[in-house]
What does this fold into?
Amino acid sequence: MELLNLIRKLSPESIIQIERRYEILRTINYRQPIGRRALASELDMGERPIRNEIENLKTLGLLNNNNMGMYVTDEGSRLINDLDDFYKNLKGIPELTKRLNQILKLKKIIVVPGNSSKDELVLKDMGKAASSYLIKILKNDDIVGVTGGSTMASVSESIYSGFKFPNVTIIPARGGLGIDLNTQANSIAAKLGEGLGARYRLLYIPDSLSEDALTAVLKNQEIKESLEFIKNMGVLLFGIGRADIMAMRRNLSKERINSLLRDGAVAEAFGHYFDLEGNEVWEYKTVGITLENYKKIGEVIGVAGGEDKAEAIIAVSSLRKDITLIIDEAVGNKIINILT
It folds into this structure.
């Protein structure tokens, strides 16, 4: 940190150049192979400055290109990893994380630089951070529950482990919700299982069922077994949803949504809708993990980003404090603005 401050004083233009080159390398790493024009558009930079930076990075052996476009060399990939901590210090992430820990008082908070609602690559960074943390804490014979949503889909796409977990079981933590197959809990559980070399089970029922319908489907042995796995989860990886968005995804009536908002609902988790202080406003009967299950699970990892998730994160963070929260810089700053 002292070195960073010295560089800022002696050569502030060097900091700007390092940040720019890091972002170019990072973008190419995610998008490769990519053409120069597409890269300039994504980074909102002119083609001439992009061309100059690309030539410099090629000279340094960090980039190369073929007829498909540019790609990061092995040396470039190593440099991106080595620069991660430096870039976080550059963006003030350690100080932001410390402040959030003081306010939310959670077990662990991991903050990724940027705003995932404006930059898709920040969402990928959050997915990478979540998958890395999950791999670190996994134990033999763990049952891992995952929810659906675009954030969880990004986690499942980022998962990679050189070490395999054949005795770990991945299970959807709830039934299907919405119509996008890629963001269904089933699809995410399958991708995570494949990426980890783990077993996975699927839950072929929607998120909500009437009591009569649930009684009927429970006669299916495979569904009964999947629900039993959910009850015995040791790890939960879940996305944090806004009350209004989740209500719309469930096709609730306009009257019900307006009622929830009038009652102060800002967050939804496992069919329960909460106000900013974590008080339950309303419960929607769902299939899968219950609030009681959630409070008993040993390792809980919540992932969410974008300023509009700030109130939802605050609400869910009040339900239990021994969780790990993975968020982006934008929502971290918004949380501080709301609570201070």
Remarks:
- The chain has a mean pLDDT of 91.
- The longest strand covers residues 108-112.
